[in-house]
From TrEMBL:
Membership in a protein family: Belongs to the WD repeat AIP1 family.
Name of the gene encoding the protein in the UniProt record: LOC118414610
GO cellular component terms given for this protein: cortical actin cytoskeleton
Transmembrane segments: none
Organism superkingdom: Eukaryota
Cellular compartments annotated: Cytoplasm
Lineage: Eukaryota, Metazoa, Chordata, Cephalochordata, Leptocardii
WD repeat placement: 55-96, 186-227, 233-274, 319-360, 534-560
Residue stretches in coiled coil: none
Protein name, entry field: Actin-interacting protein 1
CDD domains recorded: WD40 (cd00200)
Amino acid sequence: MSEYLQTTVFPALPRTQRATAFNLGGDPKGKNFLYCFGQSIIIRDIENPAISDVYTQHVAKTTVAKYAPSGFYIASADEHGKVRIWDTVNKEHILKNEFQPIGGPIKDIVWSPDSKRIAICGEGKEKFAHCFLWDTGSSVGELMGISKVANSIDYRPTRPFRIIAGGDDSTTIFYEGPPFKFKMSLAEHTRFVNCVRFSPDGERFVSVGADGKGFIYDGKTADLIAELGGGGSNAHGGGIYGCSWSPDSTQLITCSGDKTVKLWDMGQNSMVSEFKMGTAIEDQQLSCLWQGDYLLSVSLNGYINYLDRSNPTTPIRIAKGHNQPISSMAVTEDKSTIYTADNSGRITHWDTATGEHDVISGKGHSNKVLGMGVHGGNLITSSMDDSVRYTSVPGNEYGPDAITMDSTPLGVGVGKDGVSVAACINEVVVLRNGRKVFSLPVNYEATAAGVHPNQTQVMVGGKDKKLYVYNLAGDTLVECKTIQLKGAVTAFAFSPDGRYLSCAQTSRHITTLDASAGYVDVQGTDAWMQNAMVTCVAWNPSSTHLASGSLDTNIVIWDLAKPYNRFEMKGAHPISQIVGLEWLTDNKLISVGTDNAIRQWDIKY
């Protein structure tokens, strides 16, 4: 009986939005941090962010997640106002409770220090904040006095307990309890309050806002102590989106749209150092977290920065990757590096063994990358910006000028000796070593292309549900055969030995043809189907098994020797379509989905 085991996940970056605060959560033991992406919660090891876990049980876009102080549970929330409480001990993350405290998106969550109560805030229809018991959902008072969307909430970690909340009405509300009730409204800010946080010792709390100001208050009475930085000028030159205290309550970090993070001495109320993160719009800082010895911040482009207190000019590490849906994938011939590309045109390369990664820099694609492949020291990519690019690998910079197509290249097939073929909407283009050497106008919309391993033939799939076989004579294409299929071709895969060609189709079918016998259908493969459109296919190195991925979130392994047997990996990418598959060995498979997770699997037949 076939078995499979997920061994590694390289996760997505935070999905950010300009001028909108973003929440990072920290493990009370200091080992992990967590954040939201799409319908998922990403948990990452802070020392080695390549080690990660993904929670995928929400049915709506997630907004915030926080660990309980006990470390045994996580509470996560979504745009529908649902709060799910699940354990951190079991790999399955067993659900303990689910509640809907408000009728709209939840912006922030906080646990009480005894891990018994949860307070939330957000965009409700009848109220903007609520506090309840995590096990029963019973209310713990009334969090009234908020007149607009509440962006941030916090719970005093020591007795007497207090709750603070701030939001779009430019006020910070102070509650006493439990049961909690309104005590006073603080109106020092002139614009949105983006973040409020108690110090770990509970003696003070800070509010920061879109006016670039921060204010320090007494944690018991809410008396104003001082303006952050001493007043006279704003703490930041732009809106402040987050703040986080040091574990000993003596220092604070703040992050801002002015593209900086600042470290403050809270005893002297003075700035200790300033971390300048760049000059581009994507360098705006939308979140920060002080987790043990680590200081983290999140940039608008989703990058997670590990700040260095001893050298503010350069982060210790930057976790990069994708925060737009991944659209395509390729693996180098030696299987050491994975390349992934997304809807924005960003391309990232990953070490298959360690997860070490970086983003290809320079002037690259400006739109979604539709196809990619690696051969002969080149990464060849096609994009909706109507171009094909050759980029030398290994390397961190794009190649020279893009090769402009007359119409959008929907797919690219990569061969040896610098040859590749672009399937464009109204032409098929042959390229060699970064130059366009032949163009064949076609009267069908070409959707995918492939080059036979022996370089003698080129396959082009059409939206008209036909497979076109061309002889490759030098740099010229000569049509020699047309094969009727059940659907438009979405992807090709030649077996490494060159004998078989598998065609993924919009009709849910996978047709495998014997190239050595004139491209006749291999007996039995006409029944190869998935539950939705097949998006990608890949042969293992021994040419014995084919993997296919689909919109149905599943991966299926097909045995050529037993065509009617299928081995299904259900929900391989939960709530996400599969967009790319590659084999590292006969028993190791890489998959990529629009959840932006790159997953490695051990397969046993």
